[in-house]
Amino acid sequence: MSSASELLKELLTHCVKTGASDLHLSPGQPPFYRADGRLNRELAWPVLSGDDVLQLACVLAGSDLEGWSQGAIDGATSEAGGRFRFNLYRKQKETAIAIRRLDEHIRPLVELGLPDSLYELSDLKDGLVIVAGPTGSGKSTTLATLIDRINRDHQAHIITIEDPIEYLHPSQKSLVNQRQIGIDSESFNDALVASLRQDPDVILVGEIREIETIRTAITAAETGHLVFATVHAPDCVGVIERITSVFPADEQSGVRRQLALVLKAVIAQHLLVADGAKVEADEKAGSRQVARRVLASEIMRVNSAIGNLIASGKSAQILSSIESGASAGMRTLDQNLAELMLAGMISERTATAYAQNPQIVQDRLMRLKRGGGRIGLMRAEGHR
């Protein structure tokens, strides 16, 4: 097993050195690394056998997996100067591994590409804050930054419920207890229900998707706790629809009314490939931080107007309220895409591909150009 341990360390060290976000190990293939959003075959590495991958999986899981026949195993490990999340899974009776590299250090919001005003969410006493986006869009990174701010600034009891634990939060001004699904609790809902009896001030739920977990999260927010969670949805309106659609039709109106009362903010984010010309220019200029990935985000703060739209089921009108809510720290994805394009951080092709309405992006871009306003945008190098 020592040789497998050494091989794993070499593979993860290469991941860190090359700045890759993901590593894939599959029988009959050399390692595959994802860097800057692109998956590349590492031909310099030898092809891995089924036994090679199984032994690597045993090192990660800390056990003998010979009898493992189906399903998947999640976990996290600190190795080779970094922290990694892994998923072991079965495919055609063999073992395969997907590994995601996590940031070693928690980065400030502005470095992630988000406005500093979002730190206000860490000062809330109760309510529900949701970070949305597809897999790999940096949702956990954003939440880690907000939790870190509470940990450093507030005297609170923070409980995180994750699968697996990604970012470690040593207790500072707050007391932080981190629980992992599969090790410390059987399910998100079981851990969330139990957490309400553990005197928490802040609860982070890695993901809310099942009806009971969503129901408990809303109840926790209603009863004086600050709840952070992630949802797989492309935009802020999609979060509302995703949550309510989980419930039976006769419960949905009641859930909307509850959400209108407890939901404080939604951040929907996407990681985009940076404009090639901009990256090349930064590299030639010797920039210490070359942004190869750029965060585009939509931000909704739930005021009385948006709360009324949520409660009454008028989701189609929420986007207009976000568009006109700049003074309250809101912006649509299309507005942010136009700003990123004006700053030269993404190409028009990328902006158009992710836009909800490409024409709005173009109109917004023209207004920004006419206004000559400075766009204060930071690179999203810290997000994966």
From TrEMBL:
Gene3D superfamilies per the UniProt record, alphabetical: 3.30.450.90, P-loop containing nucleotide triphosphate hydrolases
CDD domains in UniProt: PilT
Xref: SMART domains: AAA (SM00382)
SUPFAM superfamilies according to UniProt: P-loop containing nucleoside triphosphate hydrolases
Domain AAA+ ATPase: 125-259
Family to which this protein belongs: Belongs to the GSP E family.
Name the UniProt record assigns to this protein: PilT/PilU family type 4a pilus ATPase
Organism of provenance: Roseiconus lacunae
